[in-house]
């Protein structure tokens, strides 16, 4: 008869908790692309579980503090602005979701850990889910743009996060391609998921998001170079795969009549704005309206550099701009200026804009300092792609513009960040133990 001791029971509990983390990750990412509200409730349950785990293991590592501070800077700036210019607690809902729900998910994964395989499976499934939704909308419903399953997303964040999922899948293929590991199935699935995510984005017609593609390609190459150096240039797989991605993007855009049409419209609208031939009464929620909003926002920022017009006063200022004829009627229904920096300057002043920049810099530093470490390469690269991608996306939309987009941001940061934190903590503990043994 085998008798299990306390140590065995602890190991069994840890293994069960790890399987729970990995099951959550594999389920929640594809589910979020399909049913973001349901995925949001799963995030809340995971956050509650994280709260329990943190209560049992309350010690905070430096990476814990860095991540939570990065998530807290924007809510803190919002509170400061409200203290100076008037209270509007609804503005805190989405950034607080990134801090509280996303933060607890990060702490949960950071204390339990997860495998690369789980994240890779999750992003592959999510990419194919996004493509399936997009193809169904376009081929079955005849939709011109994809707004998610039963319009549960907005076309812009749906396309943007589909694109990010594709690039994260590619990041999951880099290690096997360059490390000489015989994992052809993983590489093949990763490249197929990359194509799926890019194609879903193109079908969604997300013009602004496509500006991130060259940056994400460059970051993928730079990350691989940092970790694998000479193998990048000598590989028979990596550079051809990177080149194939570039060719696929251009071919897909050129062959898509809708993509070409939307690019042509954008060019025409920019030209109309610059030469002043557009009419404010005819502007809709497209490129020309964005340019007009940015101009209005910069004017307001110049008038009130310290506090902006005030987050709490945005609705009133927006309505006044419409009633006075300064802005078109379509401006009255837009919750932000579709550029996070300009929105922050116009509504919250310089302190809020600096908080947004600090968020990107702190979160970027969390991942970039670990890019060269092969055991956390996939997690670090995934997180860095999310930071860079959402930074560029937010230049033509809001960082917290939609509920689904905010949840996706929280998930795609918390999951790789937590996994990276756990690996680093294990390595640190092992190093301390080794030094202790040598000192005896």
Number of strands: 0
Order of SSEs, N→C? HHHHHHHHHHHHHHHHHH
Strand content: under 5%
Give the termini distance in whole angstroms: 37 Å
Query: Which class do the helix and strand fractions yield?
Result: mainly alpha
Q: Taking Cα atoms only, what radius of gyration do you get, to the nearest Å? A: 23 Å
Query: What is the helical fraction, as a range of percent?
Result: over 70%
Contiguous low-pLDDT stretches (5 residues minimum) are none
Mean pLDDT: 88
List the total number of helices: 18
Q: Specify the overall morphology.
A: globular
Structural key phrases:
0% strand, mainly alpha, 18 helices, single chain, 440 residues, globular
Describe this structure in words.
- The chain is mostly helical and 440 residues long.
- 76% of the residues lie in helices and 0% in strands.
- The longest helix has 36 residues, at 403-438.
Task: Describe the protein's topology.
Elements: H1 6-34, H2 36-56, H3 62-85, H4 93-99, H5 101-112, H6 116-140, H7 155-178, H8 184-204, H9 207-210, H10 213-228, H11 231-234, H12 238-255, H13 257-275, H14 287-303, H15 314-323, H16 340-368, H17 377-393, H18 403-438
Helix pairs in contact: 1-2, 1-6, 2-5, 2-18, 3-4, 3-5, 3-16, 4-5, 4-18, 5-18, 6-7, 6-8, 7-8, 7-10, 7-17, 8-12, 10-17, 13-14, 14-16, 16-17, 17-18
């Amino acid at each position: 008869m085998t008798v299990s001791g306390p140590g065995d029971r602890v190991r069994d509990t840890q293994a069960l908790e790890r399987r729970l983390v990995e099951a959550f990750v594999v389920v929640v990412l594809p589910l979020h692309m399909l049913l973001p509200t349901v995925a949001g409730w799963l995030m809340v349950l995971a956050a509650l579980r994280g709260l329990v785990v943190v209560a049992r293991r309350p010690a905070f590592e430096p990476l814990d503090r860095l991540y939570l501070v990065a998530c807290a800077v924007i809510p803190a700036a919002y509170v400061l602005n409200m203290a100076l210019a008037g209270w509007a607690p609804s503005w805190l809902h989405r950034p607080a979701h990134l801090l509280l729900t996303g933060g607890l998910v990060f702490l949960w994964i950071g204390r339990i850990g997860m495998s690369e395989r789980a994240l890779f499976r999750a992003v592959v499934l999510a990419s194919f889910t996004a493509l399936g939704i997009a193809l169904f909308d376009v081929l079955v419903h005849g939709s011109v743009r994809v707004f998610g399953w039963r319009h549960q997303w907005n076309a812009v964040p749906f396309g943007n996060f589909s694109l990010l999922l594709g690039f994260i899948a590619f990041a999951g293929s880099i290690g096997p391609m360059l490390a000489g590991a015989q994992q052809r199935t993983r590489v093949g699935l990763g490249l197929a998921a990359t194509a799926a995510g890019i194609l879903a984005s193109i079908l969604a017609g997300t013009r602004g998001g496509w500006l991130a593609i060259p940056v994400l390609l460059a970051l993928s190459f730079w990350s691989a170079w940092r970790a694998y150096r000479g193998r990048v240039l000598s590989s028979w797989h990596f550079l051809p795969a990177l080149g194939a991605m570039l060719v696929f993007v251009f071919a897909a855009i050129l062959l898509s009549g809708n993509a070409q049409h939307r690019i042509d419209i954008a060019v025409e609208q920019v030209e109309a704005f610059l030469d002043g031939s557009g009419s404010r009464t005819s502007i809709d929620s497209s490129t020309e309206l964005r340019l007009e909003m940015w101009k209005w926002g910069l004017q307001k920022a110049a008038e009130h550099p310290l506090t902006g017009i005030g987050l709490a006063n945005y609705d009133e200022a927006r309505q006044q701009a419409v009633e006075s004829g300064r802005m078109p009627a379509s401006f009255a229904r837009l919750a932000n200026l579709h550029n996070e920096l300009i929105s922050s300057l116009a509504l919250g002043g310089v302190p809020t804009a600096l908080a947004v920049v600090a968020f990107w810099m702190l979160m970027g530093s969390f991942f970039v300092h670990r890019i060269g470490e092969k055991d956390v390469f996939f997690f670090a690269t995934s997180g860095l792609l999310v930071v860079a991608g959402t930074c560029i996306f937010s230049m033509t939309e809001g960082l917290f513009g939609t509920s689904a987009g905010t949840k996706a941001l929280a998930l795609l940061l918390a999951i790789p960040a937590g996994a990276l934190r756990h690996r680093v903590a294990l390595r640190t503990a092992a190093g301390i133990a080794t030094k202790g043994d040598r000192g005896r």
